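Example 5.3 — Protein kinase domain-containing protein
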Amino acid sequence: MSAVHSYSLALARDLLANIVQANCGSVEHVLDATRISDGAFVTLKLFKKSLHPFEIEIGQFFSTESLLSDPANHCVPIYDVLVVPDDEDRAIIVMPLLRFFDSPPFDTFGEVIDFLRQISVGLRFMHKHHVAHRDCLNLNIMMDATPLFVDPYHPQDLEMKRDYTGRVSYHTRTQRPPKYLFVDFGISRRYGPNDIAPLEDPIWGGDKTVPEFQQSNEPRNPFPTDVYYLGNMIRNSFLVARTGFEFVEPLVKDMVQDDPEKRPNMDEVILRFEGIIKQLSSWKLRSRVINEHDDNILGFYRCVTHWARRFSLVIRRVSAIPTP
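Solution (predicted C-alpha cells):
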C-alpha cells in the first residue's frame, strides 16, 4: 500500500491533515492507526529525513522478502512509507503496533531466557548484515504482543480493551510466546561487506554511559558499542532491577568492559549464553520472576497463580523456554 487513504486513523484522525503544520524538530511523532484492507493495527511514525537519513533505507532493507522470512530477523518490519504532501523532508513509516518488551511483566525465568536469546540473535543478525544499530537500549526493544492478548488492547491505555468494555486479559509468554523486535534505525548505519571495522564519530543515543565516548571524541567501531548497549540493558533491566539473574552476570561484565576491543562479538555472546542456558535446571527456568514493583499482596497473588499455572504446564509438558 502506498496511498494515505489506505489507513484509518484510530485515535489520531488529524495526523495527516495537520502534518505539514507539525513542528517535528528532532522529536518523532508516533500514533496508532488501522489498516483498512485487513483491519491490522499499526503504528505511524513521522520523522525528518534530514535528521535521520538512513531510517527508511535500513528499515526497508530488513523488510525485504528474503530477510523478512529469516527467523533470526528481529528488526521491526516496515509495511509502508507514506509521503507527506508539500514536504519532501518528512515521511511517515508504517509499522506493526508494538508494546514495550516487559509489558506485561515476565512470569518465569524461562520467558526472560527466550527474550535474551531472541534479542541476541537479532543483534547478531543485524551485525552479520553489516548494520550497527547504535541505540539498542531498552526503549528500542519492543514486542509484538498479538499472541498474548485475548482481546485487542487499547494503544493509549494498555490495561484496557480497545473498545473500553473492560480490562484486557492476556496469556503468559510460556503459553503464547511473542516475538521481540528492534525498532528505531534513526542513527543506525549500514556498511559494505568488506568494511570489517568501520569507524564512526561518537553519537549519543539514549544510553549516555558508553565508556569509549567518555574517553575521547575519536571515531570508534560501532559494533562493539552495540554489544555494550545490549549488555548494559541486560544489567539494568535484570541484574539491577530484579533478583535471581546472577547466572548471566559474568557474560554481562564482559559485554560492558571499558575497553571495546575486549568485549565479545555477538557470535561469542550467543555461544556463551547457550552454554549458560544448559546449566539452568527446569526448576529454575519455571521459577517466578519477582518484579520490582510487586507489593506483598500482589506478590502473594502472583505466586499462587504462578504455581497453579506451573503445575498445569508441567503436566502438559509445555517447554520451560518458550519458542515463538
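Remark. The longest helix spans residues 109-128.
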